[in-house]
Amino acid sequence: MLAFSGATRYSFEAGMVADVARRAAALGAFLSDTSEVDAWIYTSQAHRLPPLKPAEVSAWIQDWAVLPKEPLFTQDAAPGNALARHAREYGLDGGKGDVAAAVHDIARSIPQDGVPTLVLFYLWAADMEGPVLGDGLRQTADGNVFWQFLETNRPGDDVQTFLKRLSGEAPDIRNVHLYTGWEELEGTPDYFFYRGVLKAFMRWRRPRS
Questions:
Q1: Digit-coded pLDDT (tens) for 60-80
Q2: Cα–Cα distance, 209 to 205 (Å, whole number)
């Protein structure tokens, strides 16, 4: 699965979401026989997007993982893609990417008796209430989902700080990992990104098999 924030346009305009989506598709093809990646965008709540299919990666990214830069004049506006057409419905660019709400909504969608599920959870302009997020992650600790949070290495980020505390203060919650990339997430070569993400997931999955 892939989850990314719609709280601000910048990560879409700069190509960061597109890069994560491209890598998520490659991981999906490696991990799953179906190769499809369930995709979500979260603001004050999470919204399910059409599945990301490896054969349609470029088209999917253009529809759902990018937004054109806002023009100076309305007559210069580029034609909106599928994501832009759903902007109001999803609450895009509203300054809120509620991580706890997204964890809750996504966890409810995962069958409890299904195969282990890796969620690539891209953090950008993320909001949270620590205890609420902690409770949500604890509720899935014995389940079949692994939360792989992806961070852009921004100093002082509250969510990043919380997840680092969680690993030290709640070692029983083994299905959560924070990956910050090689210097910067978007600058991390594919090999190091895939290795960094899969290493934590496979370490969690191994005792279960």
A1: 999 999 998 876 666 655 667
A2: 7
Q: How far is C-alpha 22 from the geometric centre of its chain's CA atoms?
A: 12
List, as one string, the DSSP characters of 158-207.
Answer: HHHHHHHHHHHH-TT--SEEEE--BSBGGGS-HHHHHHHHHHHHHHHHGG
pTM value surpassing 0.70: yes
Sheet holding 176-179, edge to edge: 46-52, 37-42, 2-5, 117-122, 145-150, 176-179
Hunting for tokens 């969510």 — which residue is that? 159
**Residues 37/25, Cβ–Cβ less than 8 Å:** yes
Residue reference for tokens 């690993």? 167
Q: Residue 141 in contact with residue 174, Cβ under 8 Å? A: yes
SS (H, E, C) 24-76: HHHHHHHHCCCCCEEEEEECCCEEEEEEECHHHHHHHHHHHCCCCCCCCCHHH
